[in-house]
Amino acid sequence: MGRRKKYTEEHWNEFLFRISEGAKAKKLSYEKDMPSWRLISDKLNSDEQFARKYSLALENRAEIYFDEVDELAKKVENGEICPNAGRVAIDAKKWQAATNAPKKFGGLHRHEIKHTGTDYIQALKVIAEEKQATESNTPRAQGIAETDTDSKQSLH
After folding, report:
1. Separation CA 52–CA 59 (nearest Å)
2. Is 147 exposed, middle or buried (0-12, 13-18, 19+ CB in 10 A)?
3. ∠ at Cα 137 (133, 139), nearest 5°?
4. pLDDT for 55-89, tens place per residue?
5. In angstroms, rounded to a whole number, what is the distance separating the alpha carbons of residues 94 and 98?
6. How far apart are CA 126 and CA 132, in angstroms?
């Protein structure tokens, strides 16, 4: 008996559940009850909502990898595995977690700034002018200005 030609939402949800539990998509594609790699790839590329769910499943899988880091560390502490082997395994699991959920487990944080086409220097000047205008309108700034005026008048 061959593979199904159509997969229901229930089948795709099972696929995503298995991914979140630690399974790899390529390996799942060899299982008879799962879609082929071609179908998985096509769905990821054509179905934005499914791609978001898949991404979330990968983030959940990262949690499993992170838990495995703790288990490996305990095995090293208990002498069950060699420290060097433990270090390699822990580094691999940390890498897998960071790859699947970079915002949570990745060591590199990036900030993206989008340039709208305006002149950068001009934009900074506008911001500085707005800040200066705002600060000069504060009650404290106005009180200092009034005090300076009063003290100058009392000197004359």
Report:
1. 11
2. exposed
3. 150
4. 999 988 888 888 898 999 999 999 999 999 999 99
5. 6
6. 10
